[in-house]
């Protein structure tokens, strides 16, 4: 919700623009969104998670926008754990193991369950019939997973990280796959 709100903030107001007409049309600036953000902040303070139905409604709301993939990616980045202060010299194996743990913990903290698992010794996350495919058959919400993976690895001090969604159930693949590269 906060990402939608920030995306909808006007960068500039034109001289001829009637803001009383144009700004209320921007979903993120509506009072409904502001109120919902307040409710979610209260829920976080109480350590409560949103229900699957609420998540489905949020996904549906975001999917109505042409910039939905960008919003899901940014949300994923924001939802990842905060960065850790690690020594500059740590082994790649340590970062890989720690990244897997942080990513899995993020999913459990946010959704009360894991979203798939890692294949092999590298950072490749695979998932079949996961929560996001149940809620969003278009596959746009898969960008949320990519954002969580990206920020989780960056938070360990790794630079030059890229997350690529190389397979998606919505495109007819047997499962979704996110390859995390650049370490």
Account of the protein in words:
The protein has 2 domains: 1-48, no CATH class; 69-181, no CATH class. It contains 8 helices and 4 strands, in the order H-H-H-H-H-H-E-E-H-H-E-E. It has helices spanning 2-8, 19-22, 31-45, 52-63, 68-79, 92-111, 131-135, 142-154; strands at 117-118, 124-127, 162-167, 176-181. Strands 1-2-4-3 form a 4-stranded antiparallel β-sheet, with helices on one face. The longest helix has 20 residues, at 92-111. The model has no long low-confidence stretch (mean pLDDT 82).
Concise structural overview:
The chain is α+β, with helices and mostly antiparallel strands. It has eight helices and four strands; from the N terminus they run ααααααββααββ. It has a four-stranded antiparallel beta sheet with strand order 1-2-4-3, with helices on one face.
Key attributes of the depicted protein:
alpha+beta; 2 domains; four-stranded antiparallel beta sheet; 8 helices; 4 strands; 48% helix; 10% strand
H/E order of the elements?
A: HHHHHHEEHHEE
Indicate the multimeric state. Answer: single chain
The coarse overall form would be globular
| Estimated radius of gyration | 18 Å
Which secondary-structure class do the elements indicate?
alpha+beta
Q: Mind sketching the topology for me?
A:
Blueprint: H1 2-8, H2 19-22, H3 31-45, H4 52-63, H5 68-79, H6 92-111, E1 117-118, E2 124-127, H7 131-135, H8 142-154, E3 162-167, E4 176-181
Antiparallel strand pairs: 1-2, 2-4, 3-4
């Amino acid at each position: 919700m906060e990402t939608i709100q920030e995306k909808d903030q006007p960068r500039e107001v034109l001289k001829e623009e009637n803001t009383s007409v144009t700004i209320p049309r921007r979903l993120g600036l509506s009072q409904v969104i502001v109120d919902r953000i307040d409710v979610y902040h209260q829920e976080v303070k109480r350590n409560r998670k949103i229900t699957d139905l609420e998540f489905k409604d949020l996904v549906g709301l975001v999917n109505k926008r042409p910039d939905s993939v960008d919003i899901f990616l940014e949300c994923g980045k924001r939802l990842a754990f905060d960065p850790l202060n690690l020594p500059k010299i740590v082994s790649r194996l340590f970062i890989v193991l720690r990244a897997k743990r942080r990513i899995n913990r993020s999913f459990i903290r946010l959704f009360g369950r894991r979203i798939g698992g890692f294949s092999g010794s590298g950072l490749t996350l695979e998932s079949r019939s996961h929560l996001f495919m149940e809620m969003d058959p278009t596959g746009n919400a898969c960008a949320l997973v990519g954002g969580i993976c990206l920020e989780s690895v960056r938070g360990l001090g790794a630079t030059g990280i890229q997350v690529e969604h190389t397979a998606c159930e919505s495109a007819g693949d047997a499962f979704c796959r996110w390859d995390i590269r650049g370490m």
